[in-house]
Amino acid sequence: MPLQFYMQDVSFAIPQRKKLLLEITAGRGYLRARNQTSKEIEFGIPMDKIQHILCLPVPEKNQRQFNFCLIPQYGDGINPPPDGEPVPESIVWTVADGPPKAAFSGDGQQLGNNEGETTERLVRQVLNDNLLQTQVVRPEDKQFVSAMPEAHRKGEKAYHVKAFRGSKEGYLFLLSTGILFGFKKPLVFFALENVDSISYTSVLQRTFNLNIAARSLNNDEPQEFEFSMIDQVDYGGIDAYIKKHGLQDASLAEARRAKRYNVNGAKTEEEGAATADAAVEEESELQKAQRELEDQEDEEEEDYDPGSDGDSDGSGSSSEEEDDQDGGGDANGEDGVDRDLIAEELGSEAEDIPEDQL
Fold first, then answer.
1. Burial class of 306 by CB neighbour count within 10 A (0 to 12, 13 to 18, 19+)
2. Which domain of life is it from (predicted)?
3. What is the pTM of this model?
């Protein structure tokens, strides 16, 4: 098949970690990676078998880079392939944020010579011109931006949150079409139509866990995925994203799946939005857990406070107690009259105690 596009020295991470030649063929279209020495094709996929393709900034790198993450049909970690078929692997490659130096058209003409052209933009445009079922998805401010800017590139927005799946550390990206956990094998992509519901667990002072219940489009039993140790500073942005897409409400899951296939009888966008807006008004699970934790702490502080019925809520009362224990003096009541605290606390019993033992 004749080539439409190729780029040399592309750094692939999945399914192999090596530099290969990225090629896109003309006609029906095929994306493949070729060994630059042996000229053998290492792996590839027909363009019409690509379910999702994402272009994401690589976190925590001094130099700005982008990962292109290709999710094939039945390769998202949620929807299993038909019986007997192997699970297709995702493909991930990285490009630097700079002018393309080794990108060519099928006839050998160098591409990306326009002023301000970048490798990321060129590759994204070529993919969009050849994809049949989808388009390249990038992070958007209106979807999610982390509360913590990119530490390694001062002042730059970050579109990820760090999380753990078991012992595996990775990054969650909240996108217009779903949520990706990457970048190590295996990638997991939760398309919005596969999400049954999302909830919060293990809410602590600084971190919380995110539980995603996802169901395949064959309506199998939902799978539970837990992502732990997410920083509390990103709770607000994550919660807004979840409510924006109605992901906390399992009753909306069927509507999302029906919309994916344009099934008759599915909720309209207006109905879904109205339901999601109503959910926004309700107290989220995390907010409720935080409030209950604060209430419990307040109760513990009140139980611990040994003060009397005065104004003090516990703060600054220790010095007054020390004065009383030292025999130092009287406390003034609200009416300004001197009161004997011991007598008030013990009542008539205080009268039976010898004065030298007080």
1. exposed
2. Eukaryota
3. 0.73
